[in-house]
Amino acid sequence: MAHPQMFDDDDPMLERVCTIALSLPEAQEKISHGRPAFFTKKVFAHYSGTEKFVSGEMVQHPQARLVLLDPMDAEVVLERPDSFVPMYLGPSGWVGLEIADLDDGEIRELLVDSFRSTASARLIRALDVQE
By C-alpha distance, which of 30, 24, 84, 76 is closest to 58? Predict the structure, then answer.
């Protein structure tokens, strides 16, 4: 059974993220579980996510970026009030961050760090040449 689409095609924030994510070497976009995901061989970022509290309450974050960061960097990001541990992916080290107040440079930095966590050595070398 396919998941329903959980994003707005006309979301200007999604357009910003797509432009930045797809500028990375061999990056592609696919819809995974109803949400945009960016990948090479492995997913390096998701657009939007859900946060689940111990009480069972769930909060949607429709304009958040989910990224896989180095554990030390993840700790720093999680100190921000606009961050969260995403449901399902959080136990694997993924963090969520609302991106409405981030500029393109900050969004790119998060995406690049996550890309480096998942990409092959060849793609990381291509990224280094690109930057």
Answer: 84
Is residue 40 a contact partner of residue 120, using CB atoms and an 8 Å limit? yes
Q: How many CA atoms lie within 13 A of 27 on its CB side?
A: 26
- Confidence band of 1 (pLDDT split at 50, 70, 90): low
Amino acid (one-letter) located at 115 = F
**What is the average pLDDT score of the chain?**
95
Number of Cα atoms under 13 Å in the Cβ half of residue 5: 6
- How many whole angstroms separate alpha carbon 18 and alpha carbon 47? 9
The pTM of the full predicted model, rounded to 2 decimals, is 0.93
What's the distance, Cα to Cα, between the start and end of the chain in Å? 41
Give me the residues paired with residue 66 across strands.
Answer: 46, 96
Report the Cα 103 to chain-centroid distance in Å: 15
